[in-house]
Automatic annotation (TrEMBL):
UniProt signal peptide: 1-19
Keywords tagged on the record: Signal
Species classification: Bacteria, Pseudomonadati, Bacteroidota, Chitinophagia, Chitinophagales
Source superkingdom: Bacteria
The protein, known as: DUF2911 family protein
InterPro entries: DUF2911
Length: 189
């Protein structure tokens, strides 16, 4: 009887150990977030700003890993989700102007059609999508063409950030491999 009690007790005590979920591996393309203004979370925590940010972008950061990126894994002339995994999302907390067009405050999915000398960036109303598999052109809010430039030093990790351009303006910068693309944004007064 004592042996049965010991065995049953051991089994009951081991159930929580067996039921624990194993942690997942670090994703090869971890998610990141960038704000306009830069360092917004720190400014907010330190009481230096009371308002919402102007914009934020949520994206995954794949790595180059010795691969040919542009016109390699990212084909020229084809739709790209700007990163990896879930499609990149940008949220504007104020109305902004991009490519001469007013974009109402809100959350949008950001796509790209890259070319060697320019990119077409697309803001789309269909949020929470994985990649560009369910892309619907009818939900486009904006298409704008932006210039690209060659960098002298390659960028290993795909990176998107806002660069303050003063006077209610910023540039959304996208860098990866030896390419930098710049999309000017201004606040609508």
């Amino acid at each position: 009887m004592n042996k049965l009690l010991v065995v049953c007790t051991c089994l009951l005590l081991s159930l929580p150990i067996m039921a624990q979920q194993k942690p997942t591996e670090l994703d090869k393309s971890p998610m990141d977030m960038s704000y306009w203004p830069d360092n917004y979370p720190l400014l907010k925590m330190n009481g230096k700003v009371k308002d919402l940010p102007i914009a934020r972008i949520i994206y995954s950061r794949p790595q180059k890993n010795n691969r040919t990126i542009f016109n390699g894994i990212v084909k020229y002339g084809e739709m790209w989700r700007l990163g990896a995994n879930e499609a990149t999302e940008v949220e504007f907390f104020k109305n902004v102007k991009i490519g001469g067009k007013v974009v109402p405050k809100g959350r949008y999915t950001l796509y790209c059609i890259p070319e060697a000398d320019k990119w077409t960036l697309i803001l789309n109303k269909d949020n929470y999508t994985w990649g560009n598999y369910t892309y619907d052109i009818k939900k486009d809010v904006l298409r704008t063409t932006i210039p690209v430039e060659k960098l002298t030093s390659p960028i290993e990790n795909f990176t998107i950030y806002f660069e303050d351009a003063k006077g209610g303006n910023a540039n959304l910068i996208v860098e990866w491999d030896d390419v930098k693309a710049t999309m000017p944004i201004s606040i609508v007064p």
